[in-house]
Amino acid sequence: MFIRKKHNKSGSTSVQIISKSNGKYRVVKTIGSGKSEQEVEKLYFLGKQEIERISIQPKLFVSESDTIIDQVFNALQNASIKTVGPEIIFGKIYDYIGFNSINEELFRHLVIARLAFPLSKLKTIEYLYRFQGVMMDIDAVYRFLDKLNNKLKTKVEQIAFTHTKKVLNGAISVVFYDMTTLYFEASDEDDLRKTGFSKDGKHQHPQIYLGLLVGLGGYAIGYDIFEGNIYEGHTLIPFLEKTSQKFNLEKPIVVADAGLLSNENIKALEAENYEYIIGARIKNEPQKIKHQILETKLADGQTMKIAKENNRLLVVYANNRAIKDEHNRKRGLQRLENQIKKGKFTKSNINNKGYNKYLKMKGDVMIEIDYEKFNADKCWDGLKGYITNTKLGDKQVIENYKNLWHIEKAFRMSKTDLRIRPIYHRLQSRIEAHICISFTAYCIYKELERILYKEKSPLSLKKAAEVTHNMYEISYTLPESKHTKTKLLKMDDEQAHLYQIIQKNL
Question: Residue 131 and residue 83: Cα distance in Å, rounded?
Answer without folding.
Answer: 5
